[in-house]
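Next comes one such specimen:
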Amino acid sequence: MDAPPRDGLLDRLRRVGEEGGLVGLGVCSVEPFDEVRVEMARRIDTGLAGRRRFTYTDPTVATDVSRSFPWARRLVVGSFTYLPAAGNPGPPAAGTGRIARFATVDHYRGLRAALSEVAAHLAAAGYRAEVLADDNRLVDRGAAVRAGVAWWGKSTMALAPKYGPWLLLGSVVTDAELAESEPMARDCGTCVACVTACPTGALNQEGVLDATRCISYWAQTPGSIPLDIRQAWGDRLYGCDDCLDACPPGGRLAETSAASEGRVDLLALLERTDEELMAEYAHFYVPRRDARFLRRNALVALGHRGTAEAVPVLTQYLASGPAILRGHAAWALGRVGGADASGALRRALAEEADPAVVDELEAARREVERP
């Protein structure tokens, strides 16, 4: 579309977005995010990205929205906070695991609904518009920084005044040539709170994340969780909020999120069917939509928060099911300990044929029977 936007359209979009729940809205060009693409390529080449998918599936597409939308002229970028609605999981409790606040429910629904209202307003004004939220075709943090909605924190999160890192980001691609916003003149300065808070040392002071050291990464990655990551896992079922909790700009907002949310009974979860789990946690990214990876996470959390009550369920997992679950159940039994755990491990060793599981069983037995 060649005609420029009519006067006041951007103000109306801001109002529509705010009424829909957006806490920030800005506009940026659709020029390729070349610096982001180069950095993504470097992280892939050096192994820092691990086996990450999402925008890392094709960084060239993710950093150049015009490849997917040749008609695009602007990105209208919106931010949405999931606090205080996401609540607080509270302190650890025996037999329970916690879900990171962004995933207590599908908070992206609120973001998408607000962006859809913005897109509808653009369409009514005669422009093309399409919503992109949690979409592999756009690096949403790069767009948010360019549009002045946030700055890039050392945690690799997009941060904003008042809201800190507690944001979900999305955009509306449009052919309306709206006035572009100014980027924020902000950064994290000398603050390294997120770096020191990371339980696995996945962050450095230059704002680079080693995904292979990140608990959130492993919660969404197939395969066996490395032993050193398991040791730091704590009671997490999905995600990790430690770097977000430590971030000063979002501290006051986090303090208002007092409602009890995001704590799960791990034993009850482990006894549910795959179909029930995938229905309950449909908004989680579970690799291949395979419930065994969610069960794997729960087994590791139970190794940290399980009591003698967990031994029968863990013993069941030793006796049947995929090798990955037998191995993680063995590790959890080694952590829970006790005579019943020792007996279960010895019986499993007498029957197990998978070499990797045998190694897990042996290590767990030594842990339980250590003098």
Remarks:
- Residues 108-124 form the longest helix (17 residues).
- The CA atoms of residues 130 and 173 lie 5 Å apart.
